[in-house]
Structure formats: structure tokens, C-alpha cells
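Q: I'm writing up a methods section and want to include an example of the input and output format. Could you take the sequence below and give the corresponding predicted C-alpha cells, formatted cleanly so I can copy it straight into the document?
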Amino acid sequence: MDMKVYFLAIITFITVGFYACEKQKSDPNIEQKLIGKWDLKLSSGGFAGQTKPVEDGKSSVLVFKSKDTYQRIENGKLVKEGKYVLSKAKSIYSGQLETAISFNEVDTISKEQRKYILGLRSDSLLISDNYYDGYSMLYLRVK
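A: Here is the clean output for your methods example:
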């Protein structure tokens, strides 16, 4: 009887583990709306909670080319490109599951994939660190 209980417990943990690791897809409309060029206008946050506009003469652009590829261009030069993943994450701001984006970056402390909370309107994009004293970056769509 004890062996059956252990076996059932192991099967239960494995099953729960598979479901817990399953990727949660976000609304497909968000993926379509995200495609395009986004120009960074300001960043806000940090320990002091400062809001800083982008300096005159400098630019930082995020380009989402397809459903899963992106480029980061700073001052006209490509500085990073790769794949991104949309998922759901519990937001520190609302306490609810919200759309999150990952850029294949690993958090140096937790060693987990870094997820940013994503706020998307037709012409504005807000990407926020999902931890206290983090930063939020406001981008406007390039038309």
C-alpha cells in the first residue's frame, strides 16, 4: 500500500509540474498590434523615482518585425536583436495576471527569464520591470 501512495504522489507532482511550466499565450491581437517601430520617449523609476526624457539628439527604437523577433536600435545602430516571448505574469502593479514580454534575458539574481509587464495602446507601449524600484519605459509608435 505504501508503494502505491508514493507512486501516486510522484505522478501527481509530475503532472502538476507539466501544467505549471506550460506557456500561457496572450491575446493574438496584442502580437499583431506590437509589430512595428517604437521610439523611446521617457523612462521612469528607480529608487528615487525619477522620470527622464530621452536626451536631445539620441534615440532608442524597438522594432518588432514578426510575431517573435525584435531589434533594438540606438542612435541608428543595431545593438541587439533576437526573439521575444509573450506570456502572462502576476503584475506587482495590479496583483493580476497581465501580458508580459521576455527578451531572452536572464535575471542575474533569480537566474530566471526576465519578464516585463507590457501595456499596449494603439500608439503607445509601456514596458515595465516587474519588481519594486524598477523602471518603466514609454515608447510611441513611429508612423
